[in-house]
Amino acid sequence: xxxxxxxxxxxxxxxxxxxxxxxxxxxxxxxxxxxxxxxxxxxxxxxxxxxxxxxxxxxxxxxxxxxxxxxxxxxxxxxxxxxxxxxxxxxxxxxxxxxxxxxxxxxxxxxxxxxxxxxxxxxxxxxxxxxxxxxxxxxxxxxxxxxxxxxxxxxxxxxxxxxxxxxxxxxxxxxxxxxxxxxxxxxxxxxxxxxxxxxxxxxxxxxxxxxxxxx
Length: 215
Known about the structure:
The protein is mainly alpha-helical and 215 residues long. It has nine helices and two strands; from the N terminus they run H-H-H-E-E-H-H-H-H-H-H.
């Protein structure tokens, strides 16, 4: 059996997508910046084909906009787009919580507690990347346990639009959600309180409206 196998084309496409998406969310590629497949392919060490495929996906998800034969550029952070994305993602999280809470194991709850501890530490130290990563890890426990692939796909698709604004607010000295709200969510989950967990989840996502309204 040969150990070294060709890397699947789809994997290269996914790697290009994740790298470009993360650079946009982090602000490394700023809103309004024109992106070129040849330039990014060289930076990523890939051919242009997977980068073009990544561009198409990012256009579909609202992080890039393209005019044929003219340009492809990073979209602006538009308050109404973020508000719409937050409403959809919040609804998917509420759905996931309702299904997941009765299924959670002690290990799942401990994983949420650990993620929240990392989140709180990152907020205190001003590490925006670590804070958002820990926040994702906490909520992903519930999405994963729910087993709802449609909800998971929707969350993955629209969360980057929200993260761009959250990251910018955090960088401006604003708050990045609340470890206290997370603690309330975790306690409701540990107690098997479905309705309580859904209420806290709704509160968490309503909090994003304040970030949007600052624009």
